[in-house]
TrEMBL record, chain A:
This is ABC transporter permease. It is found in: Cell membrane. It is a multi-pass membrane protein. It comes from Pallidibacillus pasinlerensis. Residues 97-308 form the ABC transmembrane type-1 domain. Keywords: Cell membrane, Membrane, Transmembrane, Transmembrane helix, Transport. InterPro entries: BPD_transp_1_N (IPR045621), MetI-like (IPR000515), MetI-like_sf (IPR035906). Belongs to the binding-protein-dependent transport system permease family.
Automatic annotation (TrEMBL), chain B:
InterPro entries: BP-dependent_transpt_permease, MetI-like, MetI-like_sf. This is ABC transporter permease. The keyword Transport applies. It holds the Pfam family BPD_transp_1. It comes from Pallidibacillus pasinlerensis. Belongs to the binding-protein-dependent transport system permease family. The lineage of its organism: Bacteria, Bacillati, Bacillota, Bacilli, Bacillales. It is a multi-pass membrane protein. Its main location: membrane. Gene3D superfamilies: MetI-like.
Amino acid sequence: MFKFILRRSLIAIPQLFLLSILIFLLAQAMPGDALSGRFINNPNLDPAYQSELRDKLGLNDPLPQQYARWIGNLVQGELGMSYVHNVKVETMLESRIANTFWLGLATLILTYLIAIPLGVIAGRWPDTYTDKFIVTYSYVSFSIPIFVFALIMLYIFGFTLGWFPTGGSVDVRVEPGSWDWYLSKLHHLLLPALSSALLATTSTIQYLRNEIIDTKLKDFVKTARAKGTPERKVYSRHIFRNSLLPVAAFLGYDIVFILGGSIFIEQIFSYPGLGQLFVDSITQRDFAVVNVLVMLYGFLSILGTLLSDIILSIVDPRIRID
Amino acid sequence: MATPAVNNNNTEIEKVKSPSGFKIIVREFIKDKVALISLILFLGIVLYVYIYSMGLDTKEVTRVDIFNQFQEPGPVHWLGTDYGGRDVYNQLILGARNSLTIGIAITLITSIIGIALGLLAGYYGGWVDNVVMRTVDFVLVLPALMIIIVYVSIVPEFDVRKFIFIMSLFYWTSKCRLIRSKALAEREHEYVAASKTLGTPDWKIMLFQVLPNLSSIIIVNMTLNLAGNIGIETSLTYLGFGLPESVPSLGTLISYSRNPEVMENKPWVWLPAAILILVLMLCINFIGNALKRAADARQRLG
């Protein structure tokens, strides 16, 4: 098992390396460089001085040298300057990382709150109408594009019924730090998180359902029944516990899914997070920020997949590659 | 389809033969009413959209007529008009046609890449398998949506072909993985060993023996992929990084809802396109699931 974990982690290293090269090359293809932000307010600057500065900053060096410097800065947390806003990229990320984190966390919690009971019910009473309904829901939720679903949710619950705010991350009139402020934050989170969660449940429901149906036939369950364990306890103590473990492995994949969806969710609910920052930066052609965000999302998705693969290999030896 | 019993020697075998693939599919659809309705609805929409759009000229439909701005649905404009006074119904038909065509194109291209590489990796195994699968693993962890968006916004002279190209570059991986795992199991069968002993070249075994045995899985996968690809295309177009404006898609109509005024008070502009996407996705999925059950004897209803 440790051999697998080691091997699997070793795969992630070249992946990260390739990702960084890819993004570096993309960055080279993007218009603008580290100086664009500082010159944007000063078009009268002498072009000769500009090129001199570029030489000094090493922007005309050969690519491998530039790459080495870029990756070195990245590792040390030097993310560069925004081309458009003339502030450090770190500063632009700060407030938004927290927002995206809370949105992601709320989505994860809601996903499991919805998926686990449904998966358990479907697995315990398979081939009933309830089960068929749940299975259909899980297929349907898999096929609906997230932006269409989120828009319709926003239209119904935000605009028509008015139950939820239609944008932002917090009511600006409320004093920061107060109890109302936290409530307002939660209120703003709920609809986007729910829209995303309702579509993220597919794999958890289906895996849990199949797992429970399989576990039911295992010998230890028969033993428990033979000993006269009440049916309720057979499920809660024996089957449920054994089936839930593999579901934990989907955590990493779910994080990757939710991150990908956040680009749309944040745009639709005008929620000031990383996904919205990405779309805004692309529109303003602020490629310094774009670059960092693509790298960050890629990094998180490599990490998330790694996490899931490792957990899955621990709880389900069948999938281990050797 | 069963071969017609012209050859007399075959007739006896014919009787005990299990039902042909096509018959199984028909039986499955008759048994599953939701899938049947989906199939009829889907074919109906596709035919209607392609036939109706033959009489439409994109330039004509997307011409701005500022005096007709935001007309409510009525006898002249069935679904009203958008902010540029353009008829929503005509845009809906054109958008659906473009979204479908591009979805089908991407599905075909990714299928060819995925099947070819998956077959090679699964059939040969060894280092070929290693190279292909590590590439797949890498492409799968890339933030594909973001990279596509970056590409769309920096590439000069962006057009439909470039959009199909960049989409195809990222979405062949899951199919490759699936085909590879099936081919890996398939090559252990006796018929492959027998063919090899007879001296049949590898490419012939792959194309004419292994591939036909995977056809049902491929059809199921392509159907479900079509839904996914249409979803991704419309999503990107909604954000403004999909099809160029000269090629309206369903996502274009929905993107008008980014204006809160349109979103709240003029739902006729974007809601029909959103509902049409939902209906198409659901139809394709129910059809795909019926095909999936038909392909797997343990799951069949009929």
